[in-house]
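Encode chain A's predicted structure.
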Amino acid sequence: MSTSHGPALPPGLLTQLSQVSLPSLLGRGLPLVTWSADGSLHPMLCSYLELLAVDARTIRLAIGAQSRSARNLEERAVGTLLMIEPEGTIYIKCRATGSPLRLGRLARFSLTVEDVLEDSPEAAEGHVRIVSGITYGPPPSLDDAWAMAVLAALRAD
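Encoded structure for chain A:
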């Protein structure tokens, strides 16, 4: 059963997506689902490195400018970010606003939070739980040129 938190990130999610603890979140993946031109859903896997919550209603996303996900966001402006963790699953439904900021090979989108849904295990599910979020390795170094370019894109005015 999903619980809606409304059109804003709750304080804990705002902190988690604000990059204040970015080094501890490197190596964790978050699916982002966009809507393709043919009406199908298009998933991509992004990381905490590529996301920055600037306030409770706004998330910046920096991804490859030539990617299908970038094209989908630019053309249809909708996406859902999934945070899959043992504590539960969060769905952040967003709408891209304005034109993306293009910085070299990256496109930075401003996503407005429209709804935050939280799924937590119910008692009827017994002891069945998600035991791990999505992880990848090795995690990028924040000194890597690509990581620095992504961080610069997220922070650019």
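The domain at 2-122+135-155 is CATH 2.30.110.10 (Pnp Oxidase; Chain A).
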